[in-house]
Amino acid sequence: MQELNYNNLDQCEAFDRLRRLFPASPKPGAGLGETAAELNPRRALERDLNAGGGLRFNFAARGVSAEALDLLFRLAEEQQAEKKYRSLLSGEIMNTGENRMVLHHLSRGQVLADKPVLAGGRDLGAFYRGERERFSLFARRVREGEIRGSTGKPFKTVVQIGIGGSDLGPRALYLALRGWAEAEGITGPEARFLSNVDPDDAAEVLAGLNPEECLFILVSKSGTTQETLTNHALVVQRLQEGGIPGLDPRGHMVAVTSQTSPLAASSDFLDSFFMDDYIGGRYSSTSAVGGLVLSLAFGPETFEEVLAGAHEGDLLALEPAEQNAALTDALLGVFDINIRGLGTSAILPYSQALIRFPAHLQQLDMESNGKQVNRRGEPIGYSTGPVILGEPGTNGQHSFYQLLHQGTGVVPLQFIGFSRSQRGRDRSLDGATSQEKLNANLAAQIVALALGQKSDNPNKNFPGGRPSSLLYGDRLTPRTLGSLLAHFENKVMFQGFLWNLNSFDQEGVQLGKVLTGKVLAGRSQSPSPGDNREALLKFYAGLLGL
Amino acid sequence: MQELNYNNLDQCEAFDRLRRLFPASPKPGAGLGETAAELNPRRALERDLNAGGGLRFNFAARGVSAEALDLLFRLAEEQQAEKKYRSLLSGEIMNTGENRMVLHHLSRGQVLADKPVLAGGRDLGAFYRGERERFSLFARRVREGEIRGSTGKPFKTVVQIGIGGSDLGPRALYLALRGWAEAEGITGPEARFLSNVDPDDAAEVLAGLNPEECLFILVSKSGTTQETLTNHALVVQRLQEGGIPGLDPRGHMVAVTSQTSPLAASSDFLDSFFMDDYIGGRYSSTSAVGGLVLSLAFGPETFEEVLAGAHEGDLLALEPAEQNAALTDALLGVFDINIRGLGTSAILPYSQALIRFPAHLQQLDMESNGKQVNRRGEPIGYSTGPVILGEPGTNGQHSFYQLLHQGTGVVPLQFIGFSRSQRGRDRSLDGATSQEKLNANLAAQIVALALGQKSDNPNKNFPGGRPSSLLYGDRLTPRTLGSLLAHFENKVMFQGFLWNLNSFDQEGVQLGKVLTGKVLAGRSQSPSPGDNREALLKFYAGLLGL
Known about the structure:
The structure is a homodimer.
Chain A: H1 13-21, H2 34-38, H3 41-46, E1 48-52, E2 55-58, H4 66-78, H5 81-89, E3 118-119, E4 122-123, H6 124-143, E5 157-161, H7 168-184, E6 190-194, H8 199-206, E7 214-219, H9 226-241, E8 253-258, E9 271-275, H10 288-298, H11 300-316, H12 325-339, E10 344-349, H13 357-369, E11 387-389, H14 401-406, E12 413-418, E13 428-429, E14 432-433, H15 434-451, E15 468-473, H16 478-499, H17 510-521, H18 532-543
Parallel strand pairs in A: 5-6, 5-7, 7-8, 8-9, 10-11, 10-12, 12-15
Antiparallel strand pairs in A: 1-2, 2-15, 3-4, 13-14
Helix pairs in contact in A: 1-4, 4-12, 5-16, 6-10, 7-10, 7-13, 10-11, 11-16, 12-16, 13-16
């Protein structure tokens, strides 16, 4: 492997030229002038890339001139985006802060076919495949009624107990596939997700469940996550105290964890499935973390399709920048953030099935790139990861789109849409089906935001020049969903390379954990004299009844 | 009523002084230095205001110096915030763009006791009360089984069909009260919400319903909302084609609309309840729009408690700035946005029951104040309403908090917490209950964000100076929820006064509607030659299968 350069963004020549050629953020209330001038159907047809799994990425309305785009591609070259991706795939230590490899791509297949990744002589691709075979078999046996609860009843509900990456991704994917599964006649246990340590969350999620028919999946890589262990203990207590003769909690509980976690050796589980430190929580949807619950609910074949779609996206991410949807998206984001000064981005799926997908991307992006140091741990002087928000359209149109059209700030937008609904159960009213209305709204929004509309009444004036891109496909299937997931994962990875930061650790969550421990330990003590931090912890805890 | 001044923010002396005294946004990665220096328990105790309904607002960790706070209070005086609120309550035309009064406060009570609001000789307070009495009686009769479905079965499910303000607020309040109702032994029909025109939303919401036991509430003030009418027609078709002998759709459908809407005169409804143009969609949760569904699900007494809490908040909003939680919050937001240059804000409830409350506030705030013209319709040259996002804690901690702690941008935070859970079903594990862990996390986050922590390893360095405030109370009850709602409504209103804009119209949503109509009408036609807008609409519609 050749030596790679790790330069900060502001050391790049292409970035310097971009900064000199293009003005910073527009004035409050103004749009980005170039969009309207440059956007037309011919250009729109050209700026359209394959994103895998039947998904395409159209970025014509992002409002970037040909000159800027060319410099962005040069920036990708300077920052060795593709080479760094290859390096990551080969098992280099890309998570420098934690001294770890980054191998979530390997959970869905070998992208560099000739290069197995070894750790201590062990083939990790084979390890992930082996675990997948084990949990696929387990899921199949549950679905076929071979594995049953401790009182002999088949499992009708699966409850995943996990938080953060063990919750948001798997939940988003599960919700995204329910309508598809229904239309395809695929049945299986209902899945629920228990995440928050708030006891009202547990009460809500567990309401109405028959413990005899319920399988719980405890997901914690470290085996030490406070919320997850607390909710696990609560569930076990419930099962024990339910007074159901013969019910053994161990027959209703499986674990997804790392082989080094305290849970791995426990005899409290019907079975355990493993991942490792090379797959970060927010990247773990395609490992056992997402795979077991999805395989239980929809069958292992469905999960394999998700993996195939993601793998297709991963392969496309090796393409040259000009044909690489994820890298192009990453570059456009850097242009928005570092040239235009726009640090917020909205994800707007015109598909109700993607209701929790923006929440997953919020974690994926903000936890990966919300960083202030480069990969060597040195402070950097430019903006990094954006704030992410989003809700499905058309709902959002009747909510926060007012600001998107006429606010004083500009928010770059990422639309997602599909020609067909998942279920195809639709009716025509006033000459159009619901799906046609949905997509007419989406097309209208892209054009309204980009071109705006002049009016003599400034209150009815739309400045336009509000950039957006569109990820689109025929229908949201498991394969398309896998590619959609990979697109964003790879976009985030490429942005990390461009910013020269480590997208794979999360030191920013540690201080809160330490101080939480202090609050709980200090409840019966007075704060140390002169310790303002302890005194404040005590004060706020007191406001909250502690 | 005395003549009011309507000056832009940048014409105010206090604003000018603030701008000169305090530096603009910090460098990427830096916090706001003053927070750590000024935050201590004594100050934290002083900066604590009554927000009504048992709720208090603590803003010590917002990191604003005494001098800045004093200037902000002067700004409120200069912009006549309290006087404008009184003027609004008195029925002045505060929605200038649409030439309407703004009367959502009146839906929960007469704030200025001696001043009934008249329109054409009609007492509007009496009108709202009258409708409330009518829908309360209707809800009571449904709950007691006096009003039943057309085949004689009691209603077990209520489905609200509405979008935007007819969905987000009522849904957020319904979800916020379920746990409380369960704990109090209050039973009633389950509520569901159908909003999106995506046909997969309808399929999901209507799945498993028994039409005989189902009551639908069609909510559209204008009676012309595309999504809502489409979903209504879809539901009626389903009911008609269900093949249930004797089932009459009209016996399962009520309307909430304005008296001038086409729906008002329709005979397709079991009953209709009215609001009017003086209550905007996003402010309509305390009118029949939220009141009917909440009264059906939890009883009219519960809804009355929500109103009482909101009314208490409305009364407190008349207090001088120094004792006025909503106005103080509004001023702190203006400081963040216009002095510090921080245009994004996160709402972080440590209460799973408030899962959809941030989505409601996203609409409330962004649709109200995402404006680029002042109330006279003149362009303004400063930033207005923020971008809002949010998820419940502790979930968010395992997701996007990395960026909040260590991102290069600073995001002001609004925490919400309660001493007790709603249900009180809790267990102690490792010496602390789940609720205690939840609140220990919240206290720890406030302190960690404000004070940060120095480390020789920049990757483990927390700059601190990340501002937050805390709305807190004993338990999330209907009354507390009402005050919480009013707090944010009034904060948004006061910010509109400070920015000199009209928070009560939404012209920004109109262009999309017009272009959607063009797409649907133009499906079978070629675009007019030379019309780039039409050609682009056609192009994007084509990508989406239209």
